[in-house]
Amino acid sequence: ISQRIDYPKQTVIELFENQVIKTPDHIAIQQEHVSISYLELNKRSNQIAHVLERKGDFRNEKIGIYATHNLDEIASILAVLKLGAAYVPIDPSNPLERINYMLEDSNVRLILSNNGDISGLRFNCEIVNVNAISSDTPGRYTKTSIAGDDLAYVIYTSGSTGQPKGVMVEHRGLLNYIDWAKETYVQGVGDSFALYSSISFDLTVTSIFTPLICGASIVIYQDDGSEFILSKILRENRCSVLKLTPAHLKLIRGVEVKTPSIKTLIVGGDDLKVDLTLEIHRKFDGKIKIFNEYGPTETVVGCMIHEFDPHIDKHPSVPIGRPISNTQIYLLDDRLSIVPMGNTGEIYISGDGVARGYLNKESETRSRFIESPFIPGKRMYKTGDLGRFINSGIIEYLGRNDYQVKIRGYRIEIEEIEHAINRYPGVRDVFVKVSEAQENESFLCAYIVSEDQIDPIEVKTYLAGLFPHYMIPTTFIQMDRIPLTINGKIDRNALPTPGVQQSDEISNQTQIEILLVSIYSQVLGCNVRVTDDFFALGGDSIKAIQIAAQLHDHGYSIKSKDIMLFASVKEFAVKIEREVKCDNTEICSGNVEYTPITKWFFNQRLSNPHHWNQSVVLKIHRDISKTEINQLLTKLIQHHDMLRINYNELKNELFFNDNSLNCRVEINEYDLSNLSIDQQSTFIENNGSYLKSHLNINDGPLMGSCLFKLSDEERLLLITVHHLVIDGVSWRILLNDIHKMLHQLSNKQVLSLGSKTSTYQAWATYIQSWDVTSELVYWKEILNEKSRFLTDSFTNANRQSIRKELSRQLTSSQTKQLHKLKSTNDLDVSEVLVGCFASVLSECTNRDNVVIELEGHGREEANSQLNLSKTVGWFTTIYPVVLYVPNGKDIEKILSIKDQLRNVPNKGLGYGVLNYLRGLLPNNNPKNIRFNYLGEIDNNLYQPHFSIEFINTGHDIDPSNQQDCLFDLELIIINGKLNITIKYDETLFTNSNIEELLQHYVDRLNDFVSKLAALREPSKVLMHSSLKISQEDLDTILY
To answer: In this predicted structure, which of 421-425, 443-447, 454-458, 919-923 has the lowest mean pLDDT?
Structure first.
C-alpha cells in the first residue's frame, strides 16, 4: 500500500491558471513554427469558454472534442473544464460507426471541432467550429466551483461486446495522477512533452496536463504520413519527455539518434520487455530515464510505476513496480484473499484514482468496480490482469487472466492465435479455446467459420511458420457460425465437443497409422492409441528425434518438429502420407566448417585432445564373432560420414578422410572365461583405458572397439568414439543401427542402413551463416550479470589435482513420479531437475541469482530444410543461464525457473554462434557449474539382441586434461532409474562438501516430487505460478 501524500485542494484547471500567473510568458504550446505563451493559451481558452457559456449552463454536462492536434484543441479542453463540464475526446480518424456510437452513448450536449469534415456525424447536437472563434472574442466567463467527484472526462475503451465503453474519470483522480506525474517526470520548467497520439487515447492525458501545471511546454506533432512521427520527434530534438507504448519503442530502435534532447521515456499500454528496454537504454548511451507506467483507463492513465534499472531488472518483462501516490494495489485470488508473496494473483486497484465507472453500463460497473474488503467505504477496480510480487514490494505483470492460458506449461495468448488464423485465406471468423482430453491433458481447439472447406493440416502447416508447436491448435472444427448468447457473447456451451477415440478405431487404422503406433509405442515405452497426445505420454524433443530416425528407416523424410507439431498419430499419419520418400546416399568429402561446439573443443587447448571420448558397453545376447563385429563397425563408419573425420593440425581444419571408407576397424578380442570376476574387471578396465588413449584425431577412424568373452554365453562389446564426432543423440542412432544390423545378421541378410538424413557438413555450413545478431544484446547482458559460484568454503588447495566422480540414484518409483510431472503438471523432467538444483545452489551460496551452464542436444531446427534425425555428429550446445530463485515454496521456485528456461532464445544455440564462431561475446568468464541432462535410455528398446551395461572401462577423458567447469553434473535415466553423477576436481572441492551438496540435491528432488504426487488432484496443480488448489490444502501438504 502506497503512502498517503497530500496533493493540492484544487483542480487541474486551477493549477494551470496559477501557473499562468507564475510564468505568463513561458512557452505553453509549440507547433511547427508557431508557439503561444501561458498567458495567450489561457486567453484563448477563456474566449472559447465565453462562446460556450452564451449557449447555456454546461456544469456537469458532457462536451465532445472532435479535433485534430493543434493549439485550439488544447484550448478547447481547458475551456470545457473551466465551465465545470466533462470533455469526451473523439478522434476524427476513427470509423464513423464508432464515432457515432460514442456520441450517442455519451449524449454530449455540444461538440467542439477544429475539423472541417463533419458530414458523417449522425448525432443531433450543435457543433461549434473552434477555428471560427475570432481572436477578438471577449475572454469573460463565469467561474464555476468544481468538486473532486465532478466528472473531468469520458474516454472510450474497447468493450467485450464489440462496442466501446465510456470510462468516467473524476477531477479528484485526474488531479492525484497529474500532481504525482509532475513530481515524477518533470525535471524543470525547461521540459517539453511531445503530443502526437490521438486524444481519445488516455496516453495523451499525461502529455497535456502534466506540463501545463508546472510551467513546462507541449510540442504538438501532426501525423501527415510524410514521415514516421516518432522519427520526426527524435530528429527535431525539441522534446525532453516522450510518452509511448512498447510497440512505439520497437519502432524507434532503427531511428538514428544524435545528441538527443529526450531525457525521459514514459512507456505504458502493454507488456514492456527487458531486452527491448535495454536496447533503447543503450541507444541513448544510458543517459535517459525509462519509466514503465502501468494503469488501466479505469484508474486515470497510470497507477503503478517502475523506473528501469539495467543492472537490476533481469526478468523477461520490466516490472510494473509500485503504486503511485494515494493508490493501493492488491494481488488477490478468486475469493478476494491476498495471495502469498511470489504467487500469481489478479491485480485490484483502489484509491483516489479509481474511476466512477462505465457510462450507461451499470451491470458492468458493478462487476468491475467493487467494494473493498480492506478499507471500508473504498472501491476497488478488478483489472483482469495478473501479477506477482517479485521482491521488495515490486510487482511483475504476467498478462491477462481472461485471455491467457497455459498448454503444457507454456503461457499462451489465445488472441494471438485467433488473429493469425483469421488471416488464413477464406477464414471469416474463429474462436479458440482450451479443451481437456483424457487424464485432464489440456489442448487447444479452434472453431472456424470459412467460405469453403478448410484443410486442418494445411492450416497447421501455415501456423507452424508463425508459432512454436505448443501454440498450434490440436483440433480444428468447422462451423457455419460461432454461437452467441442472448447477451452477444460466445456461447461456449453450444460449441461442439472435440471428438474422442472410439473403441473400434483400432480395426480401422491405416497401414501408416499401424506403423506409427508401433514406432511411438516402442520409443515412448507404452501402448499408444492413434488419438493419444505425444506430450501427455512423456514425449519430448529427443524422443521426437528417435521417432523421426525410425521413420527415416522406413523411407520417410520427417523432421522431429513435425512430430511435435502433429501431436497425435492420427493427425501425423495424414502428414506422412503427403511426404515424398527419401533416398539420400550421398558420401561426404572435403572439409567441414567449424560448428560452435567443435570450435569450443579446440579453444580448450587440452593437453591431450586425442583422449576425450564417449564409450558404451554392450552385452551381446548371441554368439558373435570378431569378423561380424568388424562388419558392423565398418558399416557404421561407411554410412555415418562424421565417423571418418580427422583434424589437420597445420591447416587447422576438419576434413573427411576418404581412406577410412575402406579401412577395416581393428578389434581386439580377449577370452576372459578362465579369470575370476575381479580379474575380469581389472582386465577390462586396463585394456579399455589403453584402447581409449590410443585414438588419434589427426589420422584414422575415431572409433575403437574391444570384444571380451566372459563365458560361452556372455560377451561384452566396448565401443569408444572420440567426442569430436558424437553426442548423446548420436549414440541412440548408432545403437539403433547396431540393433538393426544384428537382426540382419541373425536372419543372414545383407547389412543395410538405408538412406541418410541431412549431412553434418550441411548443418555446419548453415550454422556458419546463421544470422543471430538479434540475440546479441540478450547474451551480452547474461554474461555481464553472471554471478560467481562461491567455492571458498569448498576449496582445499593442499590436495593433489584428482578427477573424481560421485553418484546417486533415484528408485524406479521416484523416477516414475518425476516422469508423471510432464503429463500432470506441465513440467518437463529437465525443468524439474534444473529447478531443484538451482534452488539448492541458491541456498548453498546465499544468493537469489545463480549461474549454471546448460548442455542441450543442439538439434534445434533453425533451418527447416535440414533433417538431422539420423545424422551422427557433435551438435551439443553449451550456454549460460542466470536463474533468479525467488523466496517462497519449492513449487514457486520451480515454476519461476521453468519460465526463465523457456525464455532462452533458440535453446541457447545462438550463444555458441555469437561466442565461438563470431567472437562477439566477452571470453573472460569464470568457470561455472555445468548441468547436462542426457534424457533416457531403456534396454527394452534393444532386446533381444543386446543390453547396455554400466561397468568401469577406464577413463573416457585423459585425467591430465583440465576440467573447464567447476564441476560437471550429469543426469540420465537408465532402465527407469535416474542416475546423478558429479564429476569434480579435488583441487577445487572437498569430497565431503560435494557429497553433502549431492545428497542435498537428491533429497530436494525426492521431496518436491513426492509432495506433488501426494496432491489429491495432481493434474490440476499448476497453472503458471498459481495453484488450482486451496491455499489451506496446499500448506497442509507442503508444510
So the answer is: 454-458
pLDDT at 786: 65
Name beta bridge partners: 574.
none
In sequence order, what are the residues at sequence separation of 6 or more whose Cβ sits closer than 8 angstroms to the Cβ of residue 749? none
- What average pLDDT score do residues 646-653 get? 95
User: Cell 458530414 identifies what position?
Assistant: 119
Whole-angstrom distance, CA of residue 65 vs CA of residue 114: 9
Name the residue with higher pLDDT: 469 or 577: 469
- Measured from the Cβ of residue 506, the count of other Cβ atoms closer than 10 Å reads 13
Query: In this structure, is the dihedral angle defined by the CA atoms of residues 180, 186, 187 and 188, taken in order, positive or negative?
Result: negative
- Best CA proximity match to 757, nearest among 662, 642, 857: 642
Distance CA 202, CA 167 (A): 10
Residue 566 DSSP symbol: S
- Residue extent(s) of CATH 3.30.559.30 domains in the chain: 785-1031
> Counting Cβ atoms within 10 Å, is residue 448 exposed (0-12), middle (13-18) or buried (19+)?
buried
Q: How far apart are alpha carbons 870 and 551 in whole angstroms?
A: 10
> How far apart are the C-alpha atoms of 736 and 752, rounded to whole Å?
12
- Does the domain made of 12-396 have the CATH classification 3.40.50.12780? yes
Q: What's the one-letter identity of residue 180?
A: W
Strand 322-323 with 62-66, pairing:
unpaired
The cell for 394 is 515490486
114-119-121 Cα angle (round to 5): 85
CATH 3.30.559.10 domain position(s) in the chain: 613-762
Measured in whole angstroms, the distance separating CA 261 from the mean position of its chain's CA atoms is 34
β-pair partners for 12: none
Q: What is the pLDDT of residues 264-312, one digit of tens each?
A: 999 998 788 898 899 999 999 999 999 999 999 999 999 999 999 998 8
Q: How far apart are CA 540 and CA 564, in angstroms?
A: 8
Helix (H, G, I), strand (E, B) or coil at 894: helix
CATH code, 785-1031: 3.30.559.30
Neighbouring-strand partners of residue 565: none
How far is residue 812 from each of residues 527, 819, 935, 978, measured CA to CA in Å? 19, 10, 15, 8
Largest CA distance in the chain: 120
Q: How far apart are CA 1023 and CA 895, in angstroms?
A: 9
Beta bridge partner(s), residue 856:
877
Is the pLDDT at 797 greater than 50? The verdict is: no
Please state, rounded to an integer, the average pLDDT across all residues of the chain.
85
- Choice among 191-195, 209-213, 395-399, 872-876 with the minimum mean pLDDT: 395-399
Angle between helices 829-845 and 812-825 (to 10 degrees): 110
Residue 584's pLDDT is 61
Cα 908 from Cα 918, distance rounded (Å) = 15
Just give the CATH number of 404-494: 3.30.300.30
The span from the CA of 728 to the CA of 926, in Å, is: 26
Domain limits, CATH 3.30.300.30, in the chain: 404-494
Least-confidence region, from 277-286, 354-363, 986-995: 986-995
Quick one: 506-577 is in which CATH superfamily? ACP-like (1.10.1200.10)
Which range in 334-343, 695-704, 978-987, 1013-1022 is most confidently predicted, on average pLDDT?
Answer: 695-704
Q: Which residue has the cell 521540459?
A: 191
Report the pLDDT averaged over residues 859-878.
84
CATH superfamily of 613-762: Chloramphenicol acetyltransferase-like domain (3.30.559.10)
Q: What is the 3-state secondary structure (H, E, C) of 738-778?
A: HHHHHHHHHCCCCCCCCCCCCCHHHHHHHHHHCCCHHHHHH
pTM over 0.85: no
